[in-house]
Structures are given as structure tokens and as C-alpha cells.
Amino acid sequence: MFVTQLTKHDWYRIYKYLWKAQISPNRFRIFAKFGMVLLVLLAIYLLAPTILRVLLLLLFHIPFTVSISYSGAFFIAIIVFLLIFYYPLLFWKELRIFSPKIFITLTKSTDHFKLKKIRKQYPTAYITAGLFSPSSDSDLIAISFKDCYLLVKKGKLPYDPKRYFILPSVIRYRDISNKTAFYKQLDSICKQKINYSKITLLHEE
């Protein structure tokens, strides 16, 4: 059993690297890209007149006067802000939905009595069971960081069963007592490994 304590910042980085590795939910990715395209088009529409005038001055030395209303300047500022912080805002939205402080990973399926005992000890924890006894259609993807493994597999979102997702398990290297056995088991069920070994994922205590 692996017990990992996570902060909001940890979860933000988890969602960030799920996105970077292109294994975050398809619906989320399509929505994010569609929204970014709309923002870029809106920015071009609002900024095009000013950019054109600047180019005319620089290339042809044609004088111009900039006349932007307060409302126009406000909308331009909003669009620029969204272009810069669009993806961070999306990640923060996701972690507001699902970001348990304690994440427990059970290596094998367990009986109801033991599960109830764990739940009593960690009442607010999110528990994943059967890491090393997955079904045939749920091969793991392992993302290795400097400090931990981020393991994901196909499944349903715990807060929305209708949404398809890849449920993460976060395991610190220091919590693995028998590293040889762990890595051997992991190799047998991983269909893909992604190497971010130069990056520290979780915060330092």
C-alpha cells in the first residue's frame, strides 16, 4: 500500500504533465484547443487595426493616430490575459473538481474488511485498488519523474462516471521498499513509459 500526500500545487503539476504527455481526457483536450483557437481569432480581430497601423508606420513611414476606446482597451487587455493564463486556468479548474489531499494506491485487490479499515484510518483519502492486478484492457502508462512515478490507466472519472479518463496513481520512490520487485511488476503491465526523470513533480517537504 502506498500513501501519498498531495497539495493543490502537486495536483496542478500532475494535470499539467498529463496534458504535456498528451494523455489527458480527449474531451478536455478538444475543448481546450477549440477555446484557444477562438481566443486567438478574437485577439487578431481586436488587435489587427492597431498592428496594421504600426506596420504602415515602420515600413512606409505613414503617420497614424491610435484611437482606442476605453472599452476596446479593456477587451484587448482581457484577451491578452486569457491567452497568457488560459491553460493554467483550465488546470486549476480540473484540480478544483478532483484533487484529494491523500491518495492511496493498493497494489492488489483487497477484501471489504481491510478496505473498510483503511477508509476508517484515512476517511478523506481517494483509494485506488489492484495496481498490479489490472484488467486486460487497462494497461498502465508510467511517467517517471526525479522523485516519483505517475501511473495512469484507462477508467472512469471518480467524480463523473460518464467522462472517460485515465486515473493516476502517484508513488514516491522513497516509499518503494523492494524496488527490484516493484519495477519488475511494473514492467510487465506497462504499455508505455514516458521519461521526465530530470523534473521533480511533487513539492519538497
Structure description:
This protein is an alpha/beta fold and 205 residues long. The protein has 5 helices and 7 strands; from the N terminus they run βαααβαββββαβ. A 4-stranded mixed sheet has the order 6-5-4-7. It has a 3-stranded mixed sheet with strand order 1-2-3, with no helix packed on it. The protein is elongated and about 75 Å long. Keywords: Membrane, Transmembrane, Transmembrane helix. The chain crosses the membrane at residues 37-62, 68-92.
Summarize the structure.
47% of the residues lie in helices and 23% in strands. The protein has 205 residues and is α/β, with parallel strands linked by helices.
Structural class: alpha/beta
The description of the largest β-sheet is: 4 strands, mixed
The ordered H/E elements are EHHHEHEEEEHE
Strand content: 15-25%
Backbone CA Rg: 23 Å
Give the count of helical stretches.
Answer: 5
SSE map:
Elements: E1 2-5, H1 8-20, H2 26-60, H3 70-97, E2 102-105, H4 112-121, E3 126-128, E4 140-145, E5 148-157, E6 160-172, H5 179-189, E7 190-196
Parallel strand pairs: 2-3, 4-7
Antiparallel strand pairs: 1-2, 4-5, 5-6
Descriptive labels:
alpha/beta; three-stranded mixed beta sheet; membrane; about 200 residues
